[in-house]
Amino acid sequence: MTAPTGPTAPTGTDGRDAARLREALATVHDPEIRVLTIEELGILRQVDITPDGRAHITITPTYLGCPAMDTIRADIRAAARAAGYPQATIDTTWSPPWTTRWIGAAARDKLRAAGIAPPAPAPPPGPAPPPGARLLPLAATAPRCPLCGAADTTELTRFGSTACKALWRCGTCGEPFDHVKEH
Amino acid sequence: MTAPRTTPATAPAYPLRLGDDALIAAQRLLQWCARAPQLEEDVALANICLDLLGQARALLTHAGELEGRGRNEDTLAFLRTEQEFTHVQLVELDNGDFAVSMAKLLFFTTYQELLYGRLAASTDPALAALAAKAVKESAYHTGHAAAWTVRLGDGTQESHHRMQHAVDTIWPYTHALFTPDALDRAAAANGTGIDPATLRPLWHERITRTLKEATLTVPDDGWAPGGGRQGIHTEAFGYLLTEMQALHRAHPGARW
């Protein structure tokens, strides 16, 4: 994870305990994109151990209405219990807002290997956009086909199997594929 | 002696009205589920509903917490009466044909995108955080509605005629989105909210651009029904609300 705004270092009364717990929680997979963990997606934000020894975990949703959040909370609770923290509290924060820029290079490779086109990398910093301009360009660049690598791809629908994915089709190999939308 | 600087308090009614807009828009749009013209469109509209519902849940929860009377997202959504809802009438109107639904979606989500973009700088940290999140979702919604508006407007003679009719039918109801009342003005004055009138020039510019591309005519401003913010609603809302609340009222405290 190279993004400076990515998950922050664990803190708490005992940094080593928090780091160990974080390692355990980092193995929790996203229920909708099974090849990635909640750490790789940037959903896991902060792991603390309170002075009385309880786990305090902060997560952020990818989309406000993401229906996977309850499952993610249950999975985190189970992982924390297995790591010796039966009474974990889980907070949800919206700030800073989740962005696909937090998905690192290794996670993008995993997505591609699973047949899912990763989001385009963050654009280089440029001049400030004019007032009223969109905060993010919609489908700025067409993703390459994750199956055959061809650049000749077409968007079928911007809203795919989950809130964070769009459906595309490759013009070369003819296969449809999911694309994690830039967000 | 100077008073210490404090963060201005957000009036609970302010996030409540924004939450009502999102909630009722989601509930109405949901009626397309399993009825959309294509499978992809069905998935798209359900996705948009889910985003709107997520925004509504966050806004209603925040309103309940600010109010401090123990009301949560469920009690606010399921146990208020018709007159206690403060959304604009535009979002409760019947879906009509697909063109009417797309006109409603285009007008409403373009407003939401502009509103959330500005609200991201609210002095209320909770409102600012959820607006910064929601604005990116709204951008996808407006893109979707605009694409359909262009496809239908610049399509066949029949689709053009129906899209123009939809735009003309819904246009009067857009004025209420931009008509501030005392609550909006107070929220704008203390930095927690936005005066919606200031959003209209950019909204009008964007909508005009899309309608022109769709070979459609921008309607003249005229009749401007209002009252939603004060709890006055159209006949269509009673039926929608009854269906939305039926299960919760029949089985108080029911859980999945």
Automatic annotation (TrEMBL), chain A:
- InterPro entries named in the record: Fe-S_Maturation_MIP18, FSCA_dom_sf, MIP18-like, PaaD-like, Zn_ribbon_PaaD
Domain MIP18 family-like, first and last residues per copy: 20-82
Q: Which residues form the PaaD zinc beta ribbon domain?
A: 139-181
Q: Which Pfam family, any one, appears in the UniProt record?
A: Zn_ribbon_PaaD
Q: Which SUPFAM superfamilies match?
A: Fe-S cluster assembly (FSCA) domain-like
Matching NCBIfam families = PA_CoA_Oxy4 (TIGR02159)
**What protein am I looking at?**
1,2-phenylacetyl-CoA epoxidase subunit PaaD
Q: Which organism is it from?
A: Streptomyces celluloflavus
TrEMBL record, chain B:
UniProtKB keywords: Oxidoreductase
| Coiled-coil region list | none
UniProt GO molecular function: phenylacetyl-CoA 1,2-epoxidase activity
Q: Which SUPFAM superfamilies match?
A: Ferritin-like (SSF47240)
EC assignment: the record states 1.14.13.149
Tell me any Pfam family this protein matches.
Answer: PaaA_PaaC
Domain of life of the native organism: Bacteria
In terms of InterPro entries, this protein maps to: Aromatic_CoA_ox/epox, Ferritin-like, Ferritin-like_SF, PaaA_PaaC, PaaC
Protein name (record): 1,2-phenylacetyl-CoA epoxidase subunit PaaC
**What organism is this sequence from?**
Streptomyces celluloflavus
Identify the coding gene.
paaC
